[in-house]
Specification:
This protein has 308 residues and is of the alpha/beta class. The chain has ten helices and twelve strands.
């Protein structure tokens, strides 16, 4: 079957760990110059599994990156909704969208590291309640972004005559929800998301899961070992396996091989490929992906179905 008509886009996944802002700035500028759609950061109070490491705050680094770029869209995969009251989150998102000229993308999740909530003193009502709280949070965000007074009576949040000004540039900020859980996450995606971010652990099931995402647009997240030549393939693959082998969904190879590996996801409807590169996104690798992988994904792709 033929691939989707929408243009394939690239996002740079750039967890701000073991990386000073000068390195981050070089990478986001390179991504913008290469024509990437977006850059994405993480949202934790300390790096998971490495609390002794430095990590810049999610909102601060996103704001600074937005100020150092002109076209690149900026977001997080994903912000933990439990860290911020919905009214505070609405104000922060609208403000960053306005100061960036309408380039903010709001990635949200209900908490991937439960222990972090407990360790830092956040009440954890459990996964089902966190998912329900996120549903109400999204409803509140969209109400507040109208700029009109909002009264809200939910099971988890209550607002009276709440107003959020200024409004986002386009009247709303695109909401990305990540994850693939069938009971708690995918119903939220289908009912409330503009984009579904399919994680690397579920990328091999994208076509199977796609109907559960409803009308949401699709991004897929992958760790990628991108080799500039066949001669460099094994060294790059070994680096990628060492750094990201436990993540699932690892793709390694030359540009042609990486494009071929992404082709089925592209044909299943993926528009945005969010890449965590083996070298943490050096400008050379960013440019190589933009020049040699993306064009292959923008052409119509024929993928054989099982049994053909």
């Amino acid at each position: 079957m033929s691939g989707p008509a929408a243009r394939a886009r690239a996002g740079l996944y750039l967890p701000q760990i073991r990386m000073d802002f000068a390195d981050i700035e070089r990478r986001v500028r390179a991504a913008e110059e290469a024509g990437f759609h977006s850059a994405w950061f993480i949202d934790h109070l300390a790096p998971p599994g490495g609390r002794g490491l430095d990590m810049l705050d999610a909102w601060t680094v996103a704001t600074a990156a937005a100020m150092r770029t002109e076209r690149l869209r900026i977001g997080h995969l994903v912000l933990c909704a439990e860290f911020r009251h919905p009214a505070v989150l609405a104000k922060m998102a609208a403000s960053l969208d306005v100061v960036s000229g309408g380039r903010f993308e709001l990635g949200l999740g209900w908490g991937s590291v439960a222990g972090e909530l407990a360790d830092y003193g956040f009440h954890d009502p459990g996964p089902a309640a966190r998912s329900a709280r996120l549903a109400e949070t999204i409803d509140i965000l969209r109400l507040l972004w109208t700029g009109e007074p909002v009264d809200f009576d939910g099971a988890h949040w209550t607002l009276r005559n709440a107003v959020c000004r200024p409004r986002p540039v386009a009247g709303r900020v695109p909401i990305h929800l990540g994850g693939a859980g069938p009971r708690l996450t995918m119903p939220l995606v289908a009912g409330r998301a503009d984009w579904w971010n399919c994680p690397s652990t579920a990328a091999d099931r994208l076509a199977e899961l796609r109907p559960a995402a409803g009308a949401a647009r699709i991004s897929v997240q992958h760790p990628i070992g991108l080799a500039a030549s066949s001669a460099a393939r094994e060294e790059v693959a070994e680096t990628a396996r060492r750094r990201f082998g436990a993540w699932g969904g690892l793709i390694t190879g030359t540009p042609d091989e990486v494009a071929a590996a992404l082709a089925r996801e592209r044909a299943a409807g993926a528009e945005l490929f969010v890449c965590q590169f083996h070298d943490f996104g050096t400008p050379e690798t960013i440019r190589l992906f933009a020049a040699e992988v993306l064009p292959a994904l923008e052409r119509p792709i024929a993928v054989k179905e099982h049994g053909e």
